[in-house]
Amino acid sequence: MTRTAYAEINLPALRHNYAIAKRQLPGTRVWAVVKSNGYGHGLLRVAQALPEADGFALINLDDAIALRHAGIRAPILLLEGAIEARELDEAHAWQLDVVLRSEHQLQWLRACGQPLRVWVKVNTGMNRFGFVPERAIEVVRQLQQDGVCEVAGLMTHFACADDLATRLDAPWQRFMQVVTSTGLPFTAANSAATLRAPLTHGTAVRLGGLLYNNNPFYPDTSLWPEGILPAMRFAARIVHIGELQAGDSIGYGAAFTAEKPMRIGIVGAGYGDGYPRAAPSGTPVLVNGQRVPLVGRVAMNVLAIDLSEHPTVGIGDEVTLWGDAALSCDEIAWRCGTISEELQCALTSRLPVRQIVADSHPRPLPDDQTAPAQCLAYL
Ligand SMILES: *Cc1c(COP(=O)(O)O)cnc(C)c1O
């Protein structure tokens, strides 16, 4: 059976986005975050699209090993360290950097005796993982005295970096306590902190969303760099054209009722493919580059759109659900009360994937890539 929906992953766009980030971050390593199957874009696909990457960061040991099997020699950071003691031996065998974020991991580490490269995680307010500053300082001293592991640096992850209304001063000061006391290199910033607070860049930043065109501050675009391109397009074909008369409703729950006669397109994609069921009537899709609204409830395999203004669009025509310069995944996610990452991770593995491997119109990096002046104001 021919599939009506597919995802298109744009490898040159990923490379371009990475290059923009690199250019804004002279002297700072950029770890590409590829957890959760590369934010739904495909773990190996993303990693292989970024042969120049300074390193990759992810959660699962198996994913890290898959990257090594694929021949990737760049540094790889296990963002949450080991979840079982034996993983530390594997981490050493595969030359992975590990985060150390809890007392039980510290015990495993000292018992395993391997000369691992370790990033000691400081809890600055996320309150899930990491050592409080005083304890982090002790842990660093202890590891340095043991002399077995290399303490590569300190790491933290901000709880509220994507909320511009919340300042980062307090978590930053907590982190700086440890940085100052140990004199170690550090990695603190995800995409949001990287964009809003250059002070946090340190030795290495860990970029996920930014590489995938996900603006953490959406719908605020004031800090979003020029030139970042969508890397995932979700598209589907129109499989049926129908009519509604005034008073007719459409779909499950009769959630949308026509006020006048309407021309309706039924698109072959639904929540079974990864399009969010939460998308309300009015959510735009693109047809021939123009926005048309979704009507009624999204079903498992189909959704309906209003084609009243588009009499020539017909069966077999393609609709872009997100991932175009004119319709970002951020916008769809925002209309559904969530973030792009959730939608991208939720694309089902049954969805066929097409890859764009070469750029037909290579885009130069935009000229002025100095960070906006207001960045510093937001720490
Ligand atoms: C996921 C993750 C990141 C990347 O965050 P983005 O907001 O997607 O850039 C960075 N650090 C840690 C610890 C993470 O888990």
Number of strands: 18
Shape assignment:
elongated
Ligand names: pyridoxal-5'-phosphate
Q: Name the strands of the widest sheet in spatial order.
A: 8-7-6-5-4-3-2-9
Q: How are helices and strands ordered from N to C?
A: EHEHHEHEHEHEHEHEHEEEEEEEEEHHE
Share of residues in strands: 15-25%
Radius of gyration: 23 Å
Task: Give the proportion of residues in helices.
Answer: 25-40%
Number of helices: 11
Structural class: alpha/beta
Note the main sheet: 8 strands, parallel
Low-confidence stretches: 369-377
Distance between the termini: 53 Å
pLDDT averaged residue by residue? 95
Summary keywords:
alpha/beta, 379 residues, binds pyridoxal-5'-phosphate, 18 strands, six-stranded antiparallel barrel, eight-stranded parallel beta sheet, elongated
Describe this structure in words.
The protein has 379 residues and is α/β, with parallel strands linked by helices. It contains eleven helices and 18 strands. The protein has an eight-stranded parallel β-sheet. Helix 4 links the parallel strand 3 and strand 4. Helix 7 runs parallel beside helix 8. The longest helix is centred in the first third of the chain and has 14 residues. It starts with a strand and ends in a 23-residue tail after the last strand. Bound molecules: pyridoxal-5'-phosphate (PLP). Pyridoxal-5'-phosphate (PLP) binds next to helix 9 and strand 9.
